[in-house]
Amino acid sequence: MVLESLSSPQKAEKKPWNLFFLGAIYAFMGIFLALWVFEEQATIVMILLTVMAAIPLMYNTLKFEEDKDLTASSEKNMLRQHYRILAAFMFLFLGFVAAFSIVYISGSTEMVDKLFSSQTDTISEINSKVTGVEVLSGSAYSEGLLLRIFSNNLKVMLFCVFFSFFFGSGAIFILTWNASVISAAIGNFFRTNISDYAMQAGFIQVAGYFHIYSLSLLRYFVHGLPEILAYFIGGLAGGIISVAVIKHDFSTRVFGKVLRDALHLILLGIVVLFIAGLLEVYVTPLLVNF
Fold it and tell me: Is there a contact between 148 and 281 (Cβ–Cβ < 8 Å)?
């Protein structure tokens, strides 16, 4: 497979930033094929095609990481060895976001509606159920809101754990979907603010584009990146267990080591999610009118 040959777990670990470009390629190919072949169902086919391109790399990476657990001398070394591959996953995600958001910002209204209609509905639902008017007004959040945000994100992380356990690299579907939702939010924020900027300035300058796009990224990445990191951590934990079970490592002593590593990863993911929740509640609202 051509796309599968573009990278490997070993290459990803040595140069994790290369996966940014690989993620963008996967996403652009998914968008192009979805619009070309499945135009009426492009909003979900785009995600599925992007996921299909990323699955071989994800699955091979999970096997690669599980092998590390079997040879690691201590729990500390296990977590340290996973660091680079988690960084590679984050760059892959950022590549998805870059491609999706560029298409959202530069595409026609008709194209955006076909590609991101479901994502736009999801954003509206999230705003009404979780964040509500407070995000728009920038008012202080209550502890109850923090608990709702944290519990909702925890559910998503657990979905990543279970998807990876039962479907191997299944968590990549949730993460690709999240990339498209974040991209739609960034693109919508950009389009809204660039039109306001144009009305005030009377014309659109290149510097204005970069300024608004930077604010768009800042608005959603401050809390979004820690959330996605937690989801990748959960997906990695579930995938490691899945590979260990398939290889029958549970019949050996080292399976206990793999299980402990997965548990530590899940606990780490929960901590990262809580930090992300604090950022979303107390920091992100300050950036709305920044």
Answer: no
What pLDDT score was predicted for residue 108?
87
pLDDT at 137: 43
H or E element in which residue 285 lies: none
| Ranges of the chain with pLDDT below 50 | 131-141, 202-203, 206, 290
CB 146 within 8 A of CB 278: yes
Beta-carbon contacts of residue 6 (< 8 Å; ≥ 6 apart): 22, 25
CA distance 105 to 112: 8
Q: From 77, 121, 79, 31, select the one nearest 237 (Cα to Cα).
A: 79
Give the pLDDT score at 63: 78
At 117, which amino acid appears?
S
Distance from C-alpha of 283 to C-alpha of 150, rounded to nearest angstrom: 15
Residue 96 is predicted with a pLDDT of 96
The continuous run of DSSP H or E covering 52 comes out as helix 42-71
The span from the CA of 115 to the CA of 287, in Å, is: 27
* Residue 204 three-state SS: coil
Dihedral angle computed from the Cα positions of residues 181, 186, 192 and 194, in that order, rounded to the nearest 10 degrees: -150
Alpha-carbon distance of 209 to 197, in angstroms, equals 9
Q: Would you say 180 and 116 are in contact if contact means Cβ atoms under 8 Å apart?
A: yes
Which amino acid, one-letter code, is at 252?
T
Cβ proximity of 170 and 164 under 8 Å: yes
> Per-residue pLDDT tens for 208-252?
555 566 666 777 788 888 999 999 999 988 888 887 777 655 667
Q: Which two tokens stand for residue 69?
A: 């657990």
Q: Please give the Cα distance from 173 to 179 (Å, whole number).
A: 10
Domain assignment of residue 177, given as a range: 4-287
Q: Nearest Cα to 102, choosing from 164, 12, 23, 205? A: 23
pLDDT of amino acid 197:
57
